[in-house]
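Writing this down once: the sequence line spells out the residues, with the fold written below as integer tokens. I am pasting one below:
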Amino acid sequence: MKPEDTSRPTLQDQRFFMPPRTELSMVPFGGPPTADLPEWGGVARAPGLKFILHPPLHFEIAYRIPEYLIFTPYARAVVDVSVKDGPVRQQAWPAGSAFIVPPETTIRARMADPVEFLCIAVEETRANSVFERTARGRPWAPELIADFSDPGFTALQLEIRRSLLGDPLVEPTYLEALADGILARIGCLLAGSNIGTRTKEAISPSTLRRIVEHIEAHLGEKLVVEELARAAGLSRSHFTRAFQSAAGESPQEYIIGRRLCRARDLLSDTDRGIAQIAVTTGFSSQAHLSSTFKKRLGVTPARYREAFSERRAKGRDGDQ
């Protein structure tokens, strides 16, 4: 039998631990900023990345580091924060949201009620490489994002925690992939909002997120571009141009795409009739859904559903 190769370091060589409280050296909120984050709680590394899983203990810090810093809590966190030595403000982050800080930005933070959270420090060259690929030629610029909320980000955040705490097979390469996924989600926002252009056609990240959430919540209803524009505080023409620049397609095309995604979910996971799915997803009729589905996806809703039924039937046959 070939002897086991133990020369390659894995995360098991950097086992997570929760140090005694006395080992958590604080960086005073009002003191000189540290240039390197204290390694509270469990720490793991991968090329260009450092993961710090902080236990639910009180902390305060002042820092200014050369890396991007992503702070994301696993329960609602209330933190006193000062950015670039500006006024101290109390901010609340829901579980799964994030505070994203560009390199060389002075931050002072003090948590009121301790909760478990994750910090990811990302070397600038690695983060910028992901942002460039995500932007696909669109302009972008590093920007402090005070409250990032995104379902894809939250799923990745939870998977990182699970991997760090309980996955015996976890490897640095897997954590790298998860971190790059997180950076790609952030990059979509940076490029989608055209933060770097600062033109009058730009739409802010918070406004874009609010409009997208409104669309998702009302897909089965009539969505009028004029009403979306009013919600964004813009004229119809300005809103249409800004949305196109941010999302890469017009508001009407985006809405159709989201309705088709919802219809695909219902076709594959439920037994609802196609006519009912058409109404639920905001299409005027079954014929409208069918023609749009065929045009966009190259297959009818009925055939799409049949494909999933066939797979389920094969799966049952294989289990017998």
Notes: Residues 1-23, 194-200 have pLDDT under 50 and may be disordered. The chain has three domains: 11-192, 199-248, 250-320. Strands lie at 42-46, 49-54, 60-63, 68-73, 77-83, 89-93, 98-101, 107-111, 117-122, 145-148.
